[in-house]
């Protein structure tokens, strides 16, 4: 029996827990290149953008309690039309629950959803010092695609942003326009 259930996240049920995970990453890591925690009001627009995509937001919940242990999503990589088959994903696991396979489970489900939606390339933008995230992506078949040196500045230091990509077999018949 898995130690978590993967569910579709909703604003009503999960916005506060997602916000807490985001804000912990902002305050204590280089996983997000933000300086200030997000206010709860930011979650309204965040969920609206995901719904309009339509981009999934999935979560790993603790069985029984429904506590959100982590979540994953994807969205626009770049806004130009020719990028329509490429997405950039995010995966975050609550600090107390890392190393339990949650990130792997969320990513595997997210990649399945991306294939079902006909995407071709999934991009992960990872702070180069985040060895756990780099390892997760490599384990799932992502390949290193390059680094933008000193792309960000946080915690008094320059941050290098590494890009990893996974090429999916979809779509069967891509089209221009």
How would you characterize the overall build of this protein?
The chain has a single domain, classed as Gcn5-related N-acetyltransferase (GNAT) (Aminopeptidase, 3-Layer(aba) Sandwich). The chain is built from four helices and seven strands. The termini are far apart. The radius of gyration is 16 Å and the shape is globular. It is α+β, with helices and mostly antiparallel strands. Strands 1-2-3-4-5-7-6 form a seven-stranded mixed sheet, with helices on both faces. Strand 2 (57-61) and strand 3 (68-76) form a beta hairpin. Helices cover 30% and strands 32% of the residues.
Strand runs, count: 7
Oligomer: single chain
Could you give a short account of the major beta sheet?
A: 7 strands, mixed
Secondary structure category: alpha+beta
| Total number of helices | 4
Question: Layout of SSEs?
Answer:
Blueprint: E1 5-8, H1 11-28, H2 42-52, E2 57-61, E3 68-76, E4 86-93, H3 102-116, E5 121-127, H4 131-139, E6 143-154, E7 157-167
Parallel strand pairs: 4-5
Antiparallel strand pairs: 1-2, 2-3, 3-4, 5-7, 6-7
Quick structural summary:
With 177 residues, this protein is of the alpha+beta class.
List keywords for this structure.
177 residues, alpha+beta, Aminopeptidase, 7-stranded mixed β-sheet, 4 helices, 7 strands
């Amino acid at each position: 029996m898995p130690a978590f259930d993967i569910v579709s996240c909703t604003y009503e049920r999960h916005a506060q827990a997602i916000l807490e995970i985001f804000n912990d990453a902002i305050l204590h890591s280089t996983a997000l290149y933000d300086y200030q925690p997000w206010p709860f009001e930011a979650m309204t627009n965040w969920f609206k953008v995901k719904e309009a995509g339509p981009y999934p937001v999935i979560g790993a919940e603790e069985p029984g309690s429904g506590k959100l242990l982590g979540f994953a999503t994807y969205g626009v990589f770049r806004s130009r039309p020719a990028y329509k088959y490429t997405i950039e994903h995010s995966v975050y696991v609550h600090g107390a629950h890392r190393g339990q396979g949650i990130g792997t489970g969320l990513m595997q489900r997210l990649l399945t959803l991306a294939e079902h939606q006909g995407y071709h390339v999934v991009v992960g933008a990872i702070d180069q010092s985040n060895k756990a995230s780099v390892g997760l992506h490599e384990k799932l078949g992502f390949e290193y695609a390059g680094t933008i040196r000193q792309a960000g500045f946080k915690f008094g230091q320059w941050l290098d942003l590494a890009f990893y990509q996974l090429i999916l077999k979809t779509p069967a018949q891509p089209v221009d326009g």
